[in-house]
Structure prediction request, 946 residues.
Amino acid sequence: MKLDLRWRIVIIVVVLILSLYQLYYTFRYYTLSDKDKMNMTYEQINSLRNRSLHLGLDLQGGMNLILEVDKTSLSKEEADGAVDRALEILKNRIDQFGVTEPLVEKQGADRISIQLPGVVDRERAKNLIGKTAQLEFRIVAENTFVQKVFENIDKKLEEMKDTSRISTLVDNNGVDFIVYPENISLIRNILSKEEIKSLIPSDYIFMWGKEKNKDGVNQTILYLVEKNPVLKGDAILDARAAIGTSDNPYGVKVELTMNKNAKNKWASITGSNIGRRIAFSLDSVIVSAPVVRERIPSGNTEISMGNATINDAKDLAVILKAGALPAPVRIIEERSVGPTLGGDSIRKGIRSLIYGAIVVFVFMLIYYGVSGMIADFAMIFNLIILLSVLSLFRATLTLPGMAGLILLVGTAIDANVLIFERIREELASGKTIKTAISAGYSKAFSTIFDANLTSLVTALILYWFGTGPIKGFAVTLGLGLVVSFFSAIFVTRVIFDIITSNPNFKKLSI
Amino acid sequence: MNLKKINLPEINFVETRKITYIISLVLVIGSILTILFNKGFNLGIDFTGGIVLQVHFEKDVKIEQLRDVMNSLGYKNAVIQKYGTENDFLIKVQENFEKVQDTTGPVVVGFSTYPNPTKGEKNLTVKVKVYDEKSPVKNIFIRSDIFKEIKELTPSDIYDSREEVGVLNFSLDDFKNDSLVTLYAFGVDRTNNKGLEKEIKIFVCSKNADITKVQVVSDWQDTTYKASSKGVELSPTEKIISLLKERFIEENPRVDREEVVGAIMSKELQLKSLWVVLLGLVGILICVWIRFTFRFGVASVIALFHDVIITLGFLTITGREMSVQIIAALLTLIGYSINDSIIVSDRIRENLKLMRKDNFSTIVNKSLNQVLSRTLITSLTTLFVVFMLFLFGGKVLNDFAFALLVGVIVGTYSSDFIVAPLVLDWEIKKPSKKRG
Prediction:
């Protein structure tokens, strides 16, 4: 059992060197200046980051969402695998979002956890994640037809002694029926009247466009479209954002590729509707209603996005391509931390760690003398190994995890307190220093083991219980206990053995 | 160094145990009463659901101004407090932003007949529109005395599945000449909640096998409702943040922390927290049982209950909030505070072998005195760091540090003054067959 002292020293030195080597990456990564990063390739930075200690979202800032897939609206067959499908789709969408190291994973039976580190445009993220994106294509009624419906409505309004007239509330520019913000609710009101509703031909419905700002004026377009969509989102095989539309070289567009089944249908629809407009709607809001210029036999279709930004086009393409989520998802928990608060937390954490360590170290030094110093040394050793193990296992250091580190300084030193007290007892009973040390270590061992075991059990339970930050705490605590076993028992023992192996050694300061 | 040996006075634990029992009992009962008087714990949003926003402003902002913003959004119950510095605020709304369960069915919001014949029609179409706030609508039904079974309407509009229009075609055969027909329409949502039936009376006139006039007789009031969009509903934090940015342009608000906890999560966490604490205690019981004896296990767990309850009492009396962090602190406490009990138990176990002639109470007393200083020192080192965390760890970790601070003190006390005396009392009442 007892290894030769020399070998034990070798083990300690090797562990120390390996730990420091592992920690070097962390040190290097977090001290990189912008200039350094400029001079490094992406691969270099990435590999450095992968090897360094990961900070939780609560320390580096970021956004954590927990989504629940609402399966109530699905049939039993649909519900099977709905979460996995949603997971894949969300992964696709997130990948396009452009944050480093996003994490999308399943949590439990029907939950998905999404972690977006760094500075995140929260609203954009939530929109991209949450869109069910029911994409539908509908044929738009011709303007003369719409005007006729309006006339009928106005006639009815006159009959009803209602003073409002829909034709005056709508501004027809020859192409679109434009509604200004102040009139929207009036029109909604008119259209929701029962008498009016019966005037709308039963296979048509009114749908609204997206509010747009044109020449400083907000406007929304009212469309009368065929009720039954001619195509749905499942027809889309691929969608890409691109610049340069047929009428504007700088215009943003999304290029669609239809799948095999939809291709023929699309060809016949476009073929028989040349010159007419086909509206496409996302979640029942019409995004645009381009005119069909020609029969599209190949399925390759272009949606020009007017004066939208390329980011808008990208987001739209992502939504179209990744497909609609199989079921609505709900954000059931969201936690975001800004980078400022994260940085502040790190500073405060490190500060309490240093202060705590100083107090404990000084106390040990005063109370146990040289032996206390040995325990202090073991504690520093402990922290170094723990941090390197954390980074090696790619564990994440969270704010509660930092609290765990701090706590560990106070609790892991307990092992040494127990040993030292035992040695004092043995010395008091008249044993020689060497035998007292030996007895102290062996007798204190079972107590230390039992005490650490219970803490380990609770750390395991916490790991099961917690999400994110708390898991980080459990990991730090659990690993810390294991590592402290090595440092507080093995390392200090070796140091004692080194000291006592000196023939001139007379009195133990404990 | 003289400092090295703190000579603790010999304490007769066997005699003091009556007093410490009373002290503990008072503390535990006091804690329970505190919690009861407080009507339970101060649950944070982790447990109640709701939102927390931590906002930093670059210039001075008054709490009243923020209150105005929250009031204008309808959050009258929002808690607004300074957080750390003058320009940091914590805005908290404890409200469920999503209902856990949908228990109400769809509401019938619209009814129309189509076409409205002036000349004559063979068929009459009725449309029923229903709306459900929470779940998608599954089906719409109409029942009436004039037809035998309840008729299912085919939902046709599926643009927003929470709003459905059902269409049913009647032929003239369904009506007698010039009849007043009473229809009852209702919807059922996807969670199978049936909505209230809406009575609709229609007057149908017919002539020469044609329907000539249809009139809805019920004084129909079109219920106004707002359709909700499918997909993800933005949390109310977006509204608050955008209004803050609008109102305080100069002060340039920066959101440092945003937490939204849905009702599902919070309900789940309540249950899970209870479980996790109980599981922790059972885990300890088993550990101590295996490594020591069943009696030590039970005594330790009683002491842990004592520690947890008193810590909770202190948290409540100081107005601190229950959060996931507190649960983590409690569990850490359970794992840590048992350590001192183990030190004591270990020594008793050892002394039982060494002091075979002495009776149990002498052994317990001797053991406790032997290890008293080390239980104090191990707790002291932990208290040092927890205290530093409490002072310098920042606001976010403050409650966590406080819980541990109280817990470690109470835990050390209970390890020395409760666990071993309990085992002793047990032994006195019912001597175990085997010693130990």
User: Anything to note?
Assistant: Residues 62-131+329-334 of chain A form a domain with the Alpha-Beta Plaits fold (CATH 3.30.70.3400). Chain A touches chain B through 92 residues (CB under 8 Å). Chain A has a mean pLDDT of 85. Chain A has three domains: 5-22+338-501, 62-131+329-334, 133-324.
